Amino acid sequence: MKKKTFVFDEQTLKILEELKEKLNKKEVQIVEEALRFYHEYLVLKEGIYGDIKKISENFLEIINKIEDLSYRLGRCEAEREILIGKSKDEKQGV
To answer: pTM for the whole thing?
Structure first.
């Protein structure tokens, strides 16, 4: 184990004292647990934000693909209308 000395402000010391009484644990135990919980929270938070970012990127990719397919469908429909028009003209003998 390695010894370290920390300096806390009054409010933090007050919180530490309250936790010490409430949990019936030593200050070192409380600080250790608090650091572990905080670390888990940050890792989980980063993981969640990473997942959200990945989902957002996938969502944007899907939107871009839908936009491209919509454009292509519009062109196909326009070409179809032109072909139908030509076909009708041919049947009418124009």
So the answer is: 0.52
